[in-house]
Amino acid sequence: MFERQGGSAYKPGLETSLALDRWAGEPHKKYKTIHVAGTNGKGSTCHLLAAALQQAGYRVGLYTSPHLIDFRERIRVDGCMIGKDDVVDFMNRYFKSGLDLRPSFFELTSTMALEYFAKRQVDIAVIETGLGGRLDSTNIITPLISVITNISLDHTQFLGDTLPLIATEKAGIIKEGVPVVIGECDDKEVRKVFEEKAAACHARIIFACDRPQVLMSTDEMEVTTRGFGSFTCELKGEYQVANINTALVTLRVLSSLGFALGMNDVEEAFSHVGELTGLRARWMTLGKEPTVVCDTGHNMGGWEHLATQLRHVECDTLHMVIGFVADKDIDSILALMPRNARYYFTQPDSHRALEASALAERARELGLNGESYDHGIDAFGHAMAQALPGDFVFLGGSTYLVGEVLEWLKQMGDNLPHPAT
Q1: What is the pTM of this model?
Q2: Distance in angstroms (rounded) separating the CA atoms of residues 400 and 380
Q3: Contact 55/270 with Cβ under 8 angstroms?
Q4: In whole angstroms, what is the distance from residue 260 CA to residue 64 CA?
Q5: Is the peptide bond preceding residue 66 cis, with omega within 30 degrees of 0?
Q6: Which domains does the chain have, with CATH numbers?
Q7: What is the pLDDT of residues 297-331, one digit of tens each?
């Protein structure tokens, strides 16, 4: 599993995925799909699209990764997770199949999702790539629309160490004659990669950043759009404006392909996207007095947005509970972090985690001071114990760390630890 082992578990190529697809009866050919790739914003964009389609009355499959608490979060139909019995049934049939494919975790999970969507007779499924695009397990589908949210440096050991090289891998989801929406793209070389790939595939290319649908937005994500009305988006965080714009441009293309999507559908969907699809932990508020927010941003591109958001936070004291896996560009991320904060350095519950003491040492070299804790729950508990009502507590750096704390809070009845008084 890539989640546990890191690079040694990465398995590029489509041969196994195609073989599994044949075994399952090529289920993805029984419904329409949207394929979403990109470095950051894939999950949010997928959930926004799924919410709008659900609200418009379509039966919608949604395949995303990773999960926060429950594996079944990855595979949903109309916001409901795949049933436990469905997971067990799929795995039993695979074990009894006699196939000697040695699939990766993601290859098997992708096949499970595609088959489940056919079983549930979805009208359309929104499919998120796992890593990259060209060689990703999901790239066996031929979608109605391809979407690439943005490009920044991440997983460079697999995808390349320059933006054009990474863009080339992501552009691998562009298919013959299938329109492609590009979200954010301010690099000329990256734009050239996408334009050349689209031209080679005779695919219409639309740069969402050149067609702004969001006319105005506030700190509270009160959004005014071009043709889609006004709403308060449930997904908070300034970085969501680009994802909203990408989703709205994609919905315009869907409308041109015959999907009935009314303004009221979009307003209602974007206002209740978490409720409709189950999305969590995108600048999600866990409590007030003190304000407690968590976010799963975990790479350089994500932290460029998060750092800007954190600089705009108004509070008495900013408390930062952070932990990372070891294969990220830690020093560059730490360099973005606010200097006027109190830090609680910890580590996610993962074999790939950067040890809390090592994180604290590297942070101190950059002028960030705080204590280190071996367990995320301890770090979060200490932050809450020291935070006063006018303070702000941030939890993030790793999806695994956020998931660990959210699972603990769920066991506690979603009751936050008592803050300082």
Answers
A1: 0.91
A2: 14
A3: no
A4: 24
A5: yes
A6: 2-277 (3.40.1190.10), 284-411 (3.90.190.20)
A7: 888 888 988 999 999 899 999 999 999 998 878 99
